[in-house]
Amino acid sequence: MKERIKKIIQRVSIKPKYIRAAVVALIAAAIAATAYWEYMRMPHAVEMALRMQLVEAAEQYLGCMESDGSHVQIIDLYNSHLPRPRGYKVTETDSWCAVFVSAAAIETGMTEILPPECSCEQQIYLFQALGRWEERDTYIPQTGDVIYYDWSVEKSFGDCTGWADHVGIVVDTFCPFIKVIEGNYSDSVKYRYLLCNDLEIRGYGLPDFNGHIR
Ligand SMILES: [Ca+2]
Fold it and tell me: Regarding the domain delimited by 49-213, which CATH topology (the fold level of the hierarchy) does it fall under?
């Protein structure tokens, strides 16, 4: 009986070469799993790169202002994109906050996910038509989201659904703060810092960067 058990143990015992092979296989599987995980993360990395690309296109105009006419290049870029939204050619004296946001989209070739417009309200309709409108003022925005303001909002609690007066592109969110880049902010391109869920936030247009990748 003892001999039989010994033989069975010998038969099933794993030889060192098999252990080595198993270790190699495990390491190979771990490397493959890591590579796959990195691959799966890639779309997010590409999406973030696109978000940054939009912000950087806007940031190159930092400091442009009406007083020295340097804002005209932004309006010219907007007008160069044909057909012009609603057939309107923007003039140098028009409000140009939405024009600025649109120019960044035109420059980066992202007009199908960030529809150009010179009117905030019209641009909101376009985002709504794309199913990419975020009405909740409590939404925590991401880099590249488009933020709309309503300056005349009544200072009370609740979701602002009033008339959009102004617009910018979210640069980054450091809760509870949002950093935004805006055109026609005191007649120039400037950063704005505000609180998440600020009462004057009307809502957000959310360009579908993932859709742009596809
Ligand atoms: Ca709202």
Answer: endopeptidase fold (from Nostoc punctiforme) (3.90.1720)
Report how far ligand 1's centroid is from the alpha carbon of 41 (Å).
Answer: 32
Between the CA of 136 and the centroid of ligand 1 the distance, in Å, is 5
The predicted-structure confidence for 163-196, as pLDDT tens digits, reads as follows: 999 999 999 999 899 999 999 999 999 999 999 9
129: CA distance to ligand 1 center in Å? 17
pTM exceeding the 0.70 threshold for the entire prediction: yes
> Residues 60-90: pLDDT tens digits?
999 999 999 999 999 999 999 999 999 999 9
DSSP string, 80-117: HSSSPGGGPPPPTTS--HHHHHHHHHHHTT-TTTS---
| Alpha-carbon dihedral angle through residues 14, 16, 21, 22, given to the nearest 10 degrees | 50
Ligand 1 centre distance from Cα of residue 40 (Å): 34
Ligand 1 centroid to Cα of residue 162, in Å, is 8
Distance from Cα 139 to the centre of ligand 1, integer Å = 9
Quote the distance between the C-alpha of residue 94 and its chain's center. 27
Distances (CA, A) of 167 to 10, 22, 36, 200, 211: 77, 59, 40, 11, 23
Q: Could you give the 3-state DSSP secondary structure of residue 151?
A: coil
How confident is the model at residue 113, as a pLDDT? 97
The Cα–Cα gap between 101 and 15 comes to 68
Q: How crowded is residue 146: how many other Cβ atoms within 10 Å of its Cβ?
A: 29
